[in-house]
Amino acid sequence: MIIGERRVFVEEAGTLKMTYAGLTVTAYNFCMTSKTLAMKLLEKKKVDYTAHTYPTTERDAEKIAVHFGVKGGEVFKTLVVYRPKKPLLIMLAANKQLDLKKLAKSVGEKKLKMATHAEAERLTGLQVGGISPLALLNKGFVMLADASISEQERVFISSGERGINLNLPVKDLLKITRAKVVDVAS
């Protein structure tokens, strides 16, 4: 099949090959789905983004960075932190760890705890490994981004579906999510 100038074909079940400008890219564990809410939002806002696939069985952001051939500081994971008021969504580089004490101090709380995988999925309605701040706008979350995001021009962030990350400009991600930039990494 040809889409625009791109030549796309499914080589075998779960594998997609795409050729564009003489370059062939292979996507494994590819699932032909419609665009995610995050993709539709970015297109509506006219944000320049690219979608990148990775094996749907992978949930480790550092391994996803290796899969994309980029540094861990360029791939951001979205962590869910539970608190009785509005829960928090934290965008944090793959190569960083969340410091809950720093986070608590930055949001004026005494103590915070990470949501378990089950709690994160219940609160967001998304699968762990596919939680995206772009898919959760106006859903009652306080959005924060670690200060390390300011070191990047573009970052990879989940599309809201496990197996697909979006690469987009940091300025657009922060503007759309209205995320406050805070130093929460250890």
Low-pLDDT sequence parts: 1-13
CATH topology of the largest domain: YbaK protein
Assembly type: single chain
Shape type = globular
What's the domain count? 2
CATH class of the largest domain: Alpha Beta
Structural class estimated from helices and strands: alpha+beta
What proportion strand? 25-35%
Biggest sheet, spatial arrangement of strands:
8-6-7-9-12
- Biggest beta-sheet profile: 5 strands, mixed
| CATH superfamily caption of the largest domain | YbaK/aminoacyl-tRNA synthetase-associated domain
**First and last CA, distance:** 47 Å
The strand count comes to: 12
As a whole number of angstroms, the C-alpha radius of gyration is 17 Å
- Overall pLDDT level: 86
CATH architecture verdict of the largest domain: Alpha-Beta Complex
The H/E string reads EEEEHEHEEHEHEEEHE
Number of helices: 5
Short descriptors:
disordered N terminus, 12 strands, 5 helices, four-stranded antiparallel sheet, YbaK protein, 32% strand, alpha+beta, single chain, 186 residues, 2 domains, five-stranded mixed sheet
